[in-house]
Amino acid sequence: MDRKIVHSGDCWAADKRSQAITRKQAIEALTQHQKQPCDVCRPDTSLSVLD
User: Fold this and answer.
1) What gap in Å lies between CA 37 and CA 29, rounded to an integer?
2) DSSP character for 6?
3) Are residues 5 and 43 in contact, defined by beta-carbon separation less than 8 angstroms?
4) pLDDT (0 to 100) of residue 1
5) Can you spell out the DSSP letters for 22-49?
6) Are 37 and 5 in contact (CB under 8 A)?
7) FRET label pair with 45: which of 1, 6, 9, 12, CA 20 to 30 Å apart?
């Protein structure tokens, strides 16, 4: 299972396999591609993408 989590850029919980993406890509990942937001940094909150 390839679990992808969206992190904020300064999140300490992101591992070395993380890749930088644009704000637009993060919003699309959280809304259209149903990726999970990190429970630590909560990028969905900072991007104003809440359920």
Assistant:
1) 9
2) E
3) no
4) 46
5) -HHHHHHHHHTS-PEEPTTT-HHHHTT-
6) yes
7) 1
- The residue among 33, 32, 26 whose CA lies nearest residue 48 is 26
* Alpha carbon distances (Å) from 44 to 5, 10, 31, 50: 11, 14, 9, 6
- Tell me the pLDDT of the chain (51 aa) as tens digits: 457 899 999 999 998 888 999 999 999 999 998 899 999 999 999 999 876
Query: Cα separation of 6 and 29, whole Å?
Result: 8
